[in-house]
């Protein structure tokens, strides 16, 4: 029957797919060690545990305007961008924690013009990069966003919270920080082990596997199902989590159990989010808030234009 | 007292000069009827102060998009949301008068002290008389200029019977009036108040302290600058009991109550006959036409009787009672064995004359005891407050008494032409005396008072359950409008156009003692409460003086 072999992607099309299935998942180039927790692979149901004091963190970045600087026929390309990071604290009820917005101007060719504040709230600090390609400029902005997220994650983790970050792991320190990866671009499991991940029920996880253990970012990781997903792609509603291996295996198992047990509570429903169920409710809400904190892009672009025209940039 | 900041002007949607919203600070609140101030900097014009009245408050979760999000927020704790509380404000004053919208984000202050006076136009009131307390527990005032005839006059009070406390408010207002000669000024001396008691014997205890009055109420009266004491100067009048003598027909109280009546001579001279023909059909049936003829005949033919001041002679008949009078009239209007005399009836049909007589005989039965040779008219001048008890009288007799007394007041004032001393009239059930439809002599007097009483110094405090059923001339001429709880359908009528939509919606929920007042000086209705009365309203409440005291 067709129904058995066809499904509709639950994510809205503009996000691509929760699983890039074109050629099957690309196999990770990093070495994977499936036997760090146990060699008997089957779904694990963690013991129920008390709700942890947790913080979900996320960041956003946006190019507000593109610009050029310099004289002659090849001025240096640049951009004005805004980044923000923030947290949702969960302790019984969820509430917004601290948020921060930064604005950066990034110029190529190693030029770093001084940009005067366009207004008290719109003040760009300068970064220069050697290259001139748009993605190089963009990468510098994303790096600024990552730094902001890292600082926030470190601060919250040091305050004793379990920090769950949207996306891959940010820090290599032995803190309670879990990276939450909601889409699957690579497979880390061998064909022997994959069926175990696919057989997970909500609130279950795979055994922990190590990977990149000999790289500069050794991690422990596991798959977990956060919601039932009938009539969906086999990998739908399955997320991958990772922690730094510097926490040690025992602590990693503890974190995996707590996170696996509690994450389903935060999963979203299809009517609620276009990337349901993996896009967690606190993170989706936080992301919307961060976008709104960046301010209206049209308005900011207008400010930048008029500011630059009236001599807002000086040679630095 | 420094003004307390309660929130900031909302700019998510446009703020306008007449209406804007306030987002309320997390550690504060605003409720309906609170008064707030915003100071906004206007280029070239300088600082403009907007004063407003909270007409609605709202609370919502920001960030929630679906109704079921409430469970995620409040039960599951997975969805973060900001609790946003806001208030809608109606501008009631702009100072200086530069009509601009407040800047979004400007701080909003709860008014207090001088800024509260500004918001309530108290700084512009010529003579402000406290009438009760606003929601913030501070006094609110009415401008007496709009009560005693200088700029306006009359009060109209509406509300459902029993819970609207219309009479209680009117009395507490009068108590304030008599306690504040310094505010009332020249008009304060010799103010005379005529009160009609239409329900039980509620108002026969105005001069007795109320034993249920508590310390809190005492303090409230003190804060209004009014001694928490009963009315110091009251006279009580009731119809006489039985056909002879002048014993007042009251149940709970006889001491200090006088019986009132008119002599046949007064009845004729004052033309009181017309107040026996006050039903709306009477005019249509030409009964009033016959009445006019008969009235003038009686005035023409009546002669005094020596040694009997209240009695008259018509022809050979001595008239010492209403029965005597009816008999004489019958002889002319509907004689047994001859035609009616045209000088008494005009050219009306025989049926009309008979209908006239039927009415007259019925009247004789109902008000006969109010007309007697030893008549004793209500002395409105003896005390500051004159209470006339009508509650035991038939509807027909009530209208006769009200008509006769109102006419007396009006005629007296018209004769002197002096505005002072003021004569205040407190009359409940106005819809009965001045109904929206139809003609009657009482309605005419009331419309006269409403329209011209202001300049003659006759001030009407009229009360009714439903203003929509009272003659519009009477309601519209009242400068000050007050309302207690209203029936939901009534509140939607045009007569309450002075209320804000939010006031109308809430008028059906007012508790006894809560009312809303509108006066020309303040372009917004203000909700207020007034304290528990220090005078008794029932015999059980009355504290009697100890008769053996001092022995």
What does this structure look like?
The complex is a heterodimer of chains A (316) and B (551). Helix content of chain A is 24%, strand content 28%. Chain A is α/β, with parallel strands linked by helices. Chain A has one domain (2-314). In chain A, a hairpin with a 1-residue loop joins strand 4 and strand 5. The radius of gyration of chain A is 22 Å and the shape is elongated. The two termini of chain B are 53 Å apart. Chain B folds into three domains: 4-119, no CATH class; 128-258 and 376-541, 3-Layer(aba) Sandwich (Rossmann fold); 264-370, no CATH class. Chain B is built from 17 helices and 21 strands. In chain B, helix 9 (322-333) packs antiparallel against helix 11. By secondary structure, chain B is of the alpha/beta class. The radius of gyration of chain B is 29 Å and the shape is elongated. In chain B, the strands form four sheets. A ten-stranded mixed sheet of chain B has the order 12-11-16-10-17-18-9-19-20-21. Chain B has a six-stranded antiparallel beta barrel with strand order 1-2-5-4-3-6. Chain B has a three-stranded antiparallel sheet with strand order 13-14-15. Chain B has helices spanning 69-76, 114-119, 166-179, 181-184, 215-223, 264-269, 280-284, 287-301, 322-333, 342-345, 350-367, 395-416, 430-433, 441-456, 472-476, 488-491, 501-507; strands at 4-9, 19-24, 35-42, 46-62, 82-95, 107-110, 128-133, 139-143, 155-158, 192-197, 234-238, 257-259, 303-305, 308-314, 317-319, 385-389, 423-427, 458-464, 480-483, 514-519, 522-529. Chain A binds chain B through residues 88-90, 92-96, 265-266, 271-272, 280-282, 285-286, 288-289, and chain B through 63, 65-66, 69, 72-74, 76-82.
């Amino acid at each position: 029957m067709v129904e058995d072999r066809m499904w509709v992607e639950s994510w809205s099309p503009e996000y691509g797919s929760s699983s890039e299935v074109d050629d099957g998942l690309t196999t990770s180039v990093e070495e994977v060690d499936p036997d760090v927790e146990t060699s008997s692979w089957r779904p694990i149901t963690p013991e129920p545990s008390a709700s942890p004091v947790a913080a979900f963190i996320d960041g956003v970045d946006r190019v507000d305007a593109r610009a050029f600087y310099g004289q002659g026929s090849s001025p240096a390309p640049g951009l004005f961008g805004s980044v923000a990071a923030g947290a949702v604290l969960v302790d019984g009820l969820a509430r917004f924690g601290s948020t921060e917005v930064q604005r950066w101007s990034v110029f190529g060719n190693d030029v770093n013009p001084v940009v005067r504040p366009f207004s008290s709230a719109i003040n760009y600090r300068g970064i220069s990069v050697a290259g001139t390609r748009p993605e190089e400029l963009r990468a510098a902005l994303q790096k600024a966003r990552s730094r902001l997220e890292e600082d926030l994650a470190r601060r919250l983790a040091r305050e004793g919270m379990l920090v769950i970050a949207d996306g891959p792991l940010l820090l290599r320190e032995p803190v309670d920080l879990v990276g939450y990866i909601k889409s699957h671009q690579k497979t880390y499991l061998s064909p022997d082990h994959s069926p175990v991940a696919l057989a997970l029920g909500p609130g279950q996880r795979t055994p922990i596997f190590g990977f990149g253990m000999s790289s500069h970012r050794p991690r422990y990781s596991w798959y977990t199902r956060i919601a039932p997903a009938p009539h969906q792609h086999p990998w739908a509603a399955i997320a991958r989590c990772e922690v730094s291996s510097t926490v040690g295996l025992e602590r990693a198992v503890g974190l995996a159990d707590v996170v696996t047990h509690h994450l389903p509570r935060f999963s979203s429903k299809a009517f609620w989010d276009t990337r349901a169920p993996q896009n967690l409710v606190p993170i989706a809400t936080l992301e919307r808030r961060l976008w709104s904190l960046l301010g209206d892009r049209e308005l900011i672009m207008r400010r930048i234009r008029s500011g630059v025209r009236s001599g807002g940039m000086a040679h630095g | 007292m420094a003004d307390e900041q309660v929130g900031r002007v909302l700019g998510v949607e446009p703020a306008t000069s007449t209406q804007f919203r306030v987002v309320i600070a997390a550690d504060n609140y605003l409720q309906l009827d609170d008064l707030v101030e915003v100071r906004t900097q206007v280029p070239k014009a300088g600082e403009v102060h907007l004063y407003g009245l909270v007409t609605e408050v709202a609370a919502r979760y920001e960030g929630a998009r679906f109704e079921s999000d409430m469970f995620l927020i409040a039960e599951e704790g997975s969805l973060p949301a900001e609790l946003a509380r806001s208030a809608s404000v109606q501008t009631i004053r702009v100072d200086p008068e530069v009509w601009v919208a407040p800047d979004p984000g400007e701080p909003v202050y709860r008014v207090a002290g001088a800024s509260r006076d500004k918001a309530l136009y108290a700084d512009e009131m010529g003579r402000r008389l406290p009438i009760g307390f606003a929601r913030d527990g501070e006094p609110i005032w009415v401008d007496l200029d709009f009560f005693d005839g200088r700029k306006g006059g009359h009060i109209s009070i509406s509300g459902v019977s029993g819970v609207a406390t219309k009479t209680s408010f009117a009395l507490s207002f009068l108590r304030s009036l008599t306690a504040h000669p310094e505010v009332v000024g020249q008009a304060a001396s010799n103010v005379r108040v005529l009160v009609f008691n239409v329900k039980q014997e509620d108002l026969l205890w105005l001069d007795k302290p109320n034993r249920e009055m508590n310390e809190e109420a005492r303090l409230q009266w003190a804060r209004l600058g009014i001694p928490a004491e009963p009315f110091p100067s009251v006279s009580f009048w009731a119809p006489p009991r039985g056909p002879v003598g002048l014993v007042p027909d009251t149940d709970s109280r006889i001491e200090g109550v006088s019986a009132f009546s008119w002599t046949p001579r007064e009845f004729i001279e004052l033309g009181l006959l017309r107040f026996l023909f006050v039903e709306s059909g009477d005019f249509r049936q030409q009964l009033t036409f016959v009445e006019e003829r008969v009235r003038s005949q009686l005035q023409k033919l009546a002669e005094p009787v020596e040694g009997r001041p209240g009695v008259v002679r018509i022809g050979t008949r001595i008239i010492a009672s209403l029965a005597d009078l009816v008999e004489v009239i019958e002889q002319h209007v509907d004689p047994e064995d001859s035609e009616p005399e045209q000088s008494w009836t005009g050219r009306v049909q025989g049926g009309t004359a008979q209908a006239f007589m039927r009415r007259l005989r019925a009247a004789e039965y109902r008000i006969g005891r109010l007309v007697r040779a030893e008549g004793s008219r209500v002395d409105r001048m003896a005390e500051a407050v004159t209470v006339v008890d009508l509650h035991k009288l038939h509807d027909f007799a009530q209208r006769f008494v009200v008509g006769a007394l109102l006419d007396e007041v009006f005629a007296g004032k018209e004769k002197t032409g002096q505005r002072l001393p003021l004569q205040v009239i407190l009359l409940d059930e106005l819809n009965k005396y001045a109904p929206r439809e139809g003609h009657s002599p009482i309605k005419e007097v009331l419309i006269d008072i409403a329209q011209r009483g202001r300049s003659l110094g006759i001030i009407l405090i009229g009360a009714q359950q439903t203003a929509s059923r009272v003659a519009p001339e009477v309601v519209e001429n009242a400068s000050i409008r007050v309302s207690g709880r209203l029936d939901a359908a009534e509140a939607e009528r045009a007569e309450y156009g002075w209320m804000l939509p939010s006031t109308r919606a809430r008028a059906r929920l007012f508790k006894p003692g809560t009312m809303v007042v509108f006066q020309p000086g303040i372009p917004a209705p203000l909700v207020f409460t007034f304290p528990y009365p220090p005078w008794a309203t029932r015999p059980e409440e009355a504290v009697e003086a100890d008769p053996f005291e001092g022995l």
